[in-house]
Specification:
Layout: E1 8-12, H1 16-29, E2 41-45, H2 52-56, H3 64-77, E3 81-83, H4 93-99, H5 107-117, E4 122-126, H6 129-134, H7 136-143, E5 147-149, H8 154-167, H9 177-188, E6 193-196, H10 201-207, E7 214-215, H11 217-228
Parallel strand pairs: 1-2, 1-3, 4-5, 4-6, 6-7
Helix pairs in contact: 1-11, 5-11, 8-9
C-alpha cells in the first residue's frame, strides 16, 4: 500500500541562505523522475524573526512571537508537519510545538541519532554563542554518551565570525584562516568530525572549500523530512 504523501512546512528566514540550503537538499535528495514526483513544500522565509543568539544572551527581543506566526501561517496554508532550519531556534522548540497542532521534527535530536549511527566516539560542536550557552546540544550528547569538544576563546570567535561576517554578510571572499586554525586544533584534540551546529556552517564549508569530516544537521533534517513526507531518499 502506497504511503500517504504529506506537505512539508519550513519555518525559514534564519537566515535566507540556510533556508535555501535546506530546500535544495530536500529537492536533491528526493527520489523523483519528474517535477510531479517531488514533495509539496511550503516555505515561510520570515526574516522578521529576531536574532536567536541575541535573545538567548539577553541582548535582543524574543523570537518566539514571530516563530509562532510562521508556524500558524504554514498550518493554515496546508502543511502536514514543520521543520526549522535553525539550530539555535530549537531552544524555543517547546514554545513552537505547543502553539501548533502540527508535528515539528527536532533537528538536534535527529543529529544525535545520526552521530550514534555513525559510531563517532568524539565530535566537536561548531555553533553560535547562543546555541553553546543553552547547552541544548551538550545535554543531548551527554544523554546519548557522545563525547563533545567545544571551541574556546579565539576559536569560538572564529566560528561566530564565519557565520556572521562570512555567510550572513554575503561574503564569498571571506578569509577562513582563523577558522581553519580552530578546526585543526580540535582535530588534534581528538575530534573525529565537526557537528555543523549552525545552519550557515554547511554553507561556509561548501562556499569556502573547507574539507573536513562533518555531521550536517541540515542534511539530516532534509532526509528525515523526505521520509516523513512519505517519499524515498535518493541513494
Amino acid at each position: 500500500m502506497e504511503q500517504i504523501k504529506k506537505t512539508i512546512g519550513i519555518i525559514g528566514g534564519m537566515g535566507p541562505l540556510a533556508t535555501v540550503d535546506l530546500y535544495d537538499k530536500i529537492v536533491r535528495r528526493t527520489e523523483a523522475a519528474s517535477d510531479g514526483e517531488h514533495i509539496h513544500v511550503l516555505i515561510d522565509s520570515n526574516t522578521a524573526v529576531p536574532d536567536r543568539t541575541a535573545a538567548i544572551l539577553g541582548l535582543g527581543p524574543s523570537p518566539v512571537p514571530e516563530l509562532i506566526k510562521s508556524a500558524k501561517r504554514l498550518e493554515v496554508a496546508g502543511a502536514d508537519f514543520l521543520i526549522i532550519p535553525c539550530n539555535t531556534a530549537h531552544y524555543f522548540y517547546d514554545d513552537i510545538r505547543s502553539a501548533t497542532a502540527l508535528p515539528v521534527l527536532h533537528m538536534l535530536r535527529l543529529t544525535a541519532a545520526e552521530i550514534l549511527r555513525r559510531k563517532l566516539a568524539k565530535v566537536a560542536l561548531l555553533a553560535t554563542d547562543g546555541t553553546v550557552k543553552t547547552g541544548i546540544y551538550a545535554r543531548l550528547f551527554e544523554e546519548n554518551g557522545i563525547s563533545c569538544l567545544l571551541p574556546q576563546g579565539e576559536a569560538q570567535r572564529a566560528v561566530m565570525d564565519a557565520i556572521y561576517l562570512g555567510v550572513k554578510a554575503g561574503r564569498r571572499d571571506y578569509d577562513t584562516a582563523a577558522l581553519n586554525k580552530a578546526l585543526r586544533a580540535l582535530r588534534d584534540a581528538g575530534a573525529e568530525a565537526f557537528v555543523l551546529g549552525c545552519t550557515e556552517l554547511p554553507i561556509a564549508f561548501s562556499q569556502y572549500g573547507i574539507d573536513e569530516p562533518a555531521v550536517d544537521p541540515t542534511q539530516i533534517l532534509a532526509e528525515a523530512a523526505i521520509r516523513e513526507a512519505g517519499y524515498r531518499v535518493l541513494e
